[in-house]
Amino acid sequence: MPKPVLLITRKLPEAIEARAAQDFDARLNTKDDPWFRSGAEIAKRANEAKAEGVLIAAGDPMNAEAIAALPASVKIITTFSVGYDHIDVKAAKARGITVTNTPDVLSFATAETAMTLMLMAARRAGEGERLVRAGKWEGWAPTQLMGVTLEKKKLGILGMGRIGRELAQMARGFSMEIHYRDINKLPPELELGAVYHDDDDKFLSTIDVISMHVPGGDATRKWLNAERLAKMKKGSLVVNSGRGGSVDDEALIAALASGHIRAAGLDVYDGEPVVNPGYFKLENVALLPHLGSATIETRDAMGRRALDNLFALLVEGKEPPHAVK
Ligand code: DGY
User: Fold this and answer.
1) Is the C-beta atom of 97 inside 6 A of ligand 1?
2) Do 5-105+296-314 and 107-287 agree at the fold level?
3) What is the pTM of this model?
């Protein structure tokens, strides 16, 4: 039996590429050539290869046009990410194409990134690092680069899914009080004493730090806008390691410049890899390049999960373990 043809859009960890080459007739992008940025280009290569599966990553634009242009041979689109807002799932389903993702295995690493950003924002770590690297540090001083402590602060988690809950656990270690806003209240065994809010205004006016963990897409587009930022206490912190589109960049930049928001930490951006240049003028924002899940262990686990999904459908003819419903 010939192996199923699998088009892979990105350079992947070595062990994952090796397993892909063993289980599939894998068309790898070993040099990470940036053709993955265009949905039309991905579809073109899928046609040339007569691919049965396409393994993409966060940001590869599988919109309705790209899906319409895929060859009839494609049965599955697997994304090397938990988020799938870059895929038009409805259009895929309409063509009978299964969409799968890689949930769970990246929750801890992504929560670690949120915690890192929270600490960087609270303790002015980016500013301090820039000072030392610029050779401008003149030694310890009682009033130098004073930030705020996280101890006993109220952390507001927007979106209490798997990543939000991991962050809540970490933040408890910093003696933070956990509040969360979500569509549904969690059962007590998952809530672990966190305070549920069913109202945006009460949530925003209660917390000292917001950490955003909502999926991208129209429902959350620019959720954190000028009006909602104004409802937060003066001196609050903003952290986003979810999706860039859920923050109104211009509104956050204005709130950081005025000092209403003390500091922010961002890992994701609306329209990334382009970053609103307004952020570059500000000292009080820590900017990371979407490395939420970027640990060696996590990326290997994500790769294994992605290949398990493909193997189930294309080789075993079974329902993949992580099909997007
Ligand atoms: C995801 O998995 O959705 C991340 O944003 C990519 O690391």
Assistant:
1) no
2) yes
3) 0.96
